[in-house]
Structures are given as C-alpha cells and as structure tokens.
Amino acid sequence: MDLAELGRRYHEDGFAVARGVFSLAEIAAVIAELDSYIAEHAATLPPADIHFEAGPGKAIKSMFRLHERRPFFDRLQNDPRIMAMMRAIFPGGDVVADGVIYFGKPAREGSVTPVHQDNAFQCWKPPLELTATIALDESTPENGALTIARGSHRLGLLPHKLSGVAGFSRCLVEPIDPGKFPDVMTCLKPGDMVFHSVDAVHGSNANRTDRPRRQMGVSYHSTLAARDEAERERYLQSLKTIYPGSKAS
Ligand SMILES: O=C(O)CCC(=O)C(=O)O
Is residue 217 lining ligand 1, measured as CB closer than 6 Å? Predict the structure, then answer.
C-alpha cells in the first residue's frame, strides 16, 4: 500500500480506494459478528440506531453506533492498518475514530441513498473528517455501489433539505454539474475500502439483485478539526421530529 499516493488521491478526488485491506477470513469474521449483533440487539435498538427498508421483508437498511455495544467493532475502528492510512490522509494532527455504521442495502429491497454530503450531518470545520467504507460483499452497478462525484469535495458544504429517507435525513437541494464532477461508482470486492471526504457528494442506487451489498462505514476526524456545536445542535433538534428520542443521523 502506497500511503502517500492514497493521501494524494484522497485530496485530489475527495475519495480514495484501497484494495484488499482485509482478508476474506477477516471479512467472514466481521459478518459473523454482525449476524450475532443483529440477533442480540436488533429487536431492542432505539429508533435512531436502526432503520428498515420499506419493502415486504422490512430488511435492515442501516444500524448506527455498533462500537458502543460491541468491543469487536470498537477494535475494528481502531485497526492499525486503517489508522496508518488515516494518518497518511490527515497528517499533522492526531486521528480519532468516531464510530461504526452498518449499511445493509439488502437483496431486492435495498433502496436508493439520496445524494448528500456527510457534513450536512457532521458539521466539521475545517472538513477534516471522512467515512471509511469496508466492503463485506462485492458492490456493482446493479446492487447499488457507493457512487461519489469526483472533485465535489472542493465545492464545500452545499444547501441540503430534508429527504424523507430513514437514515439519510438530508439530501442536496440541487444536483451538481456532472460534467465538472463526474460520478464514480466505487465497485468494491470484499475487504476493499474507500475513504470519502465529509464534503464529497455521494449516494447510491437501489439494489435490484438477489445479493445484498453490505458495507461497514467508519467515521474518523483529524484533531485539527472541530465540530460546529451550534450547527450540530440545530441538526440534532431537527431529527427529534423524525426519530423521537434520537441521538443522530
Ligand atoms: O450505503 C450507501 O451507499 C451510502 C453510504 C453513505 O452515505 C456513507 O457511507 O456516507
């Protein structure tokens, strides 16, 4: 892994892909832990920490804050390989892991992720925060690969509105110019990772295949950045109308 090249790509494009970070055996262990987490917790998670698809199977769409309930996921977010890549991307300060999310995109029911920037939820200034995706399944154009507009992180935070979509409460008000910021589908194999900036415009299509497109999303920030707490509080207040008792997202 060329860490300097990873960092250069990230700052140039607003995202960077790292292939084969985790072995297939390690990914199988993550999936086993996830299955056991679902069996233990899914029925009792608060509404902000689990979202379901609207399809007939009501399959799990996403889950938040897994690291708070399982040391396995806390260890995952502090994996030394990821931390080495994070320090290459955000040199200068320290890097802090902010939590683990599960994005299910279940077979046949996985719905569209509306186009958004994570900083509409996260409120970091400067925007030295990112999501590191770990692919558990192969992602393809047909099953809703994470799609990122190359270079869009340079636009800064754009206006968002309420999306009405569970787990992705905000989306862009206006589309951006695809001629200047072309969409890149990050088609991943299990164990691959993609790091996308909190300001990168991204989303994904529905999953119409018979296979799930499961991914873990881990957030990291540089200690050179701070949250705009007033902005974050306004966002959290807006959520209370959507998810009573909510903490985030
Ligand atoms: O599941 C998806 O494709 C969207 C994930 C996402 O929005 C994110 O990782 O920030």
Answer: yes
